[in-house]
């Protein structure tokens, strides 16, 4: 059982979090699944049937001293089609919901163990970047570390969106990949409180 002190306008209380031990294999599996879902899969090449080449036989079958050839669209010639080349496809695959939930809980545990998790209850900001910078400085965030800001407070996200070292997302966007690629996680405390019973239902790519 781990404890986390909530900061912010309505903070001061302590949240008890029961999170699983970090397993790098599970985290790798979830991140790989997320990145596979994000792949556009638009790579495409032309086959011999699609290139703009004549379909006529290049020269006679016999008497030229050259090898026997048909049309110039075959893959052996420059400008011909590509054999077994990429075509548009989806790289997405399914991952069990319990594995996704476990991965998210482990990512939260990792940031908690490193002291890089900040739970906030009430930012009390007006949507100005200057106000967010003052709040960040007061809580040890000076721009030297990348911050993943997860909150449903639109004014806070608006205040932070111009800062290159902050990635603001609503709570529905909470995901393993972004947690791990940022040094700090600043999150609404209400998201963590239900984690005593169950972690987030979904990991969003």
How does this structure look, described?
The protein is an alpha/beta fold and 205 residues long. The chain folds into 2 domains: 2-40 and 91-196, Ribosomal Protein L4, Chain: A, CATH 3.40.1370.10; 45-85, no CATH class. The chain has helices at residues 24-38, 97-113, 129-138, 154-160, 176-181, 189-192; strands at 2-7, 14-17, 117-120, 147-150, 166-169, 184-188. Strands 2-1-3-6-4-5 form a 6-stranded mixed β-sheet. A hairpin with a 6-residue loop joins strand 1 (2-7) and strand 2 (14-17). Helix 1 packs across helix 2. Mean pLDDT is 91; it is low at 195-202.
Using brief descriptors, characterize the structure shown.
6 strands, alpha/beta, 2 domains, 6-stranded mixed sheet, elongated, Ribosomal Protein L4, Chain: A
Q: What radius of gyration results from the CA coordinates? A: 27 Å
| Low-pLDDT sequence parts | 195-202
Classify the fold: give the CATH topology of the largest domain.
Ribosomal Protein L4, Chain: A
**Strand/helix succession:** EEHHEHEHEHEH
Number of helices in the DSSP assignment: 6
- The name of the CATH architecture of the largest domain is 3-Layer(aba) Sandwich
In short:
The chain is 29% helix and 13% strand. The protein contains six helices and six strands; from the N terminus they run ββααβαβαβαβα.
């Amino acid at each position: 059982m781990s404890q986390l002190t909530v900061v912010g306008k309505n903070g001061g209380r302590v949240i008890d979090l029961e999170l699983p031990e970090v397993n790098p294999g599970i985290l790798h599996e979830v991140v790989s699944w997320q990145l596979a879902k994000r792949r556009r899969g638009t790579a495409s090449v032309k086959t011999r049937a699609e290139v703009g080449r004549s379909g006529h036989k290049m020269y006679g079958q016999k008497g030229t001293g050259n090898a026997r050839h048909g049309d110039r669209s075959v893959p052996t010639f420059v400008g011909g089609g590509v054999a077994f080349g990429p075509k548009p496809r989806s790289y997405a695959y399914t991952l069990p919901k319990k594995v996704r939930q476990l991965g998210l809980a482990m990512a939260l545990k990792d940031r908690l163990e490193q002291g890089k998790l900040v739970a906030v209850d009430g930012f009390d900001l007006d949507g100005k970047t200057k106000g967010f910078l003052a709040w960040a400085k007061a809580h040890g965030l000076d721009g030297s570390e990348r911050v993943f800001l997860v909150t449903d407070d639109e004014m806070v996200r608006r205040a932070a969106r111009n800062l290159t070292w902050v990635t603001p997302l609503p709570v529905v966007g909470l995901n393993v990949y972004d947690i791990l690629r940022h040094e700090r996680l600043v999150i609404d405390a209400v998201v963590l409180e239900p984690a005593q019973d169950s972690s987030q239902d979904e990991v969003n790519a």
